[in-house]
Amino acid sequence: MNKLEIIIKPEKLEVLKAVLDDQKVNGVMITNIMGYGNQKGYTQMYRGSEYNVNLLPKVKVETVIAAKDTARIVEAIIKEIRTGEIGDGKIFVYEIENAIRIRTGEQGEEAL
């Protein structure tokens, strides 16, 4: 099993959810976060003063999937989310040792 941690712009969340639904991904966790990467933020004028805004709003989506489906799902996400501009986001892939459904005691992929 693998955990996908996907960090994207907030306006791409609905597109990502549609991709994950199309790929039959069960269960996601969504967190609003702030951060920056290569963008390093932007400069904004407010009441005649210039401010550097270096923490940008992002969304982190986490899900656990079967290892055999990882490449296909990652490719589908990239195909739909990529614009070619700085700030498209990142996908981190982690190996998961085990998953346990508390209600039934199912383990491994059966728990997904």
Protein model, in words:
With 112 residues, this protein is an alpha+beta fold. The chain has one domain (2-111): Alpha-Beta Plaits, CATH 3.30.70. The protein is built from two helices and six strands, in the order βαββββαβ. The protein has a four-stranded antiparallel beta sheet with strand order 2-5-1-6, covered by helices on one side. Strands 3-4 form a two-stranded antiparallel ribbon. Helix 1 packs antiparallel against helix 2. The longest helix is centred in the last third of the chain and has 12 residues, at 70-81. It is elongated. The termini are close together. The mean pLDDT is 92.
- The total count of strands amounts to 6
Report how far apart the termini are.
Answer: 9 Å
Q: Name the CATH class.
A: Alpha Beta
Strand content: 35-45%
- Which outline best applies? elongated
Secondary structural class: alpha+beta
**Gross CATH architecture:** 2-Layer Sandwich
The largest β sheet comes out as:
4 strands, antiparallel
The helix tally amounts to: 2
SSE order in H/E notation?
EHEEEEHE
Helical residue percent?
10-25%
Mean pLDDT, all residues: 92
